[in-house]
Fold this protein.
Amino acid sequence: MPKLAGLTFEQAAAVPVAGFTALQALRDRAQVRSGQQVLINGAAGGVGTFAVQIAKAFGAEVTAVCSTRNVAMVRSLGADHVLKEFIEAGKVTPVIDRTYPLSETPAAMRYASGGHARGKVVITIPGTDR
């Protein structure tokens, strides 16, 4: 695919997989139309950032789920609602299955990829505020 005008090479490299994945999910699978409500989980990720923008381009009302540090960025992409308010209001609570220290990252990865984790597996870094 030729590089689109107005994109850097780095931006163009992100489009084929992440951009098309989001487009296919919203246009072809979900058939998103103007006026519909769409929930984008992982809205700050590679596919999620495209999905927020594509859903808005289709005229949908977008609720985005992302970490607190990504709220402003996701809002800047056009999300109408972002999951921060739900957490602060106590309506949503992150579920943590297990935590592992940084030194045990391989064990954490094995556990997480085993398909049995309930909630998130978290790596802790010594000396950081918990």
Notes: The helical segments are 9-29, 46-57, 71-76, 84-88, 105-113. Residues 87 and 95 are 12 Å apart (CA to CA). The first helix runs from residue 9 to 29.
